[in-house]
Amino acid sequence: MDITQKIKEHIVNGELPRGVPLRQAELSARYGVSRIPIRDALLSLRAEGWLAPHGKAGVMIPALNWKEAEDLCLMRAELECLLFEMAFDNIQEENVKEARGFLIDLDHENLTLVGRGELNWQFHNALYQAANRPTLQRVVEGLNKQAVRYLGFQYGPLGYRSISQDQHEVLLRLIESKNKQAALNYLRQHIEQAGKLLSEYLKEISY
């Protein structure tokens, strides 16, 4: 696991503090590497939305909050459904097979939260890539990467893992049956249901 992935895991697991500046020297000592890979990792994490500016040149881990979670859900629902609609008629048997392979991988018990987030994106990406719309796909990928920050809630207290897996399988079956409208509706429901559950939970605990 590279430094960027390790920092992501420690952010999701709450091992790094939120709202305080991250010091390159401290991180360098923590992870046993020089400052150069730490600097590169922080730049990458900031670009992906995992870190926010702090002071003139520093960065910090931003707080999680229901408004951001809801915004990510709203954007994902619109853009992913658009991308999926563009892809649907071009999805081939090998795309479905690839997606089902990622679904099987997601059932492994020893996955990290960040690992699950990446596999979840790879599942969806296997279907969306048939659209051949790389610019839109990059935006959708960015939203998914930011949403990984909230997986600790979805796979923890919300217990959404098995529900998500079942919904993924239903989506694949709808694709195999060539039921385009039902598949589009189901994808939107899949995204919105998880987003609503998450944002309502965050409101309750005042994030």
TrEMBL record:
Domain HTH gntR-type: 1-64
Highest taxon of source: Bacteria
GO MF term list: DNA binding; DNA-binding transcription factor activity
Gene3D superfamilies with a match to the protein in the record: GntR ligand-binding domain-like (1.20.120.530), Winged helix-like DNA-binding domain superfamily/Winged helix DNA-binding domain (1.10.10.10)
Keyword match Transcription regulation: yes
Keyword set, alphabetical order: DNA-binding, Transcription, Transcription regulation
Alphabetized Pfam families for the sequence: FCD, GntR
Keyword DNA-binding: yes
This protein's name: GntR family transcriptional regulator
